[in-house]
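Exercise 7.
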Amino acid sequence: MSDTYENPDLDPDVPTGPLALPLDQWHRARGGRMVDFAGYWMPVQYNGEGGGIIAEHLWTRESAGFFDVSHMGQIYVSGEGAEAALEAILPIDLSTLPLGGARYSLLLNEDGGILDDLMVTRWGTGFYLVVNGATKWDDIGHLREYLPDEVTLNHLEDNALFALQGPAACAALEPLVKGEQPLSALTFMRGAAFRLGGVDAWISRSGYTGEDGFEISVPSTKAAELADLICAQPQVKTIGLGARDSLRLEAGLPLYGHDMTDTVDPVSADLLFGINKRRRNEGGFVGADKVLPLIASGAATRRVGLAIEGRMAAREGATVLSNDAEVGTVTSGGFSPSLERPIAMAYVPVDLAAPGTALSIDVRGRKLAASVVSMPFVPHRYHRKGAA
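Solution. The predicted structure, written as tokens, is:
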């Protein structure tokens, strides 16, 4: 998601930021250092409990980290023809999505540029969408523009959203929930309704850290009570935006507004898994006329991972060089706490995108040696169906 927030001209009643999330005072009481992110006050790290960004990052990799992601947009699309209407917008095959199943997808413009990335889950007779916080008002406007009148879009503004991520996430959360199935029966990208602390909650086994974990939608009025319940578990610590960013970078996951923008296509972004096979063959989604030829012929550039020598990190905007010639730009970069070295993502010409390709990065006049590597930088540990 982007770190900027623009209030669209879609509705004069859309609020301007920074706004307070349901857990605002809860974060401050726990030592959260609050920053303006995506139009909301959010904790970048916790000065007391968390121990700093690197400590919070490593705790999540080793145990379970609690993230407040209530700034993200939660949307329910339902009504007669909702499935066909969404397929006319998104490059997703909803016919193969089971009840409770979640899938990654993309919101594209007519030129094939990425307006946002999102998650789509089949809920009963409709679909639950989670979109990025900085783009949610634009996303809602875009969806309303394309959805027919008989399809209803509800912005679930009264719901908070948590993420519990890490190898101990299931052990920490399972004793707190009751449902028709045990929480441990959920596999990656599957969700179900549960009672969490006596409160109705939707829980999916998903997240954006590369770790096993869950995303938890609950009523905003119960957010602090349920956050206390989860964080009372010995495996759990509160984690801020700083570690959330370094975790997703290690996992090779792109960040909207940085690694994806409305001028970047899914082929260049290496996100073809977000366009299902049937949709590649049939088209019929917004942007298909631009994207399908690129799938057939290939794009000129590609998002790649870069391992950087030394200890200095290359940040967004740094120039990527090949034999002193400018060939690309870093879109995300930082120091990897898990690997104890700097890493980055960048767009480079496809003939320089093969793993092992030697490049360099200009950081304030200093050239850092780098090489293209496969992503993720740190292996994903999702709890997939059929896995040991």
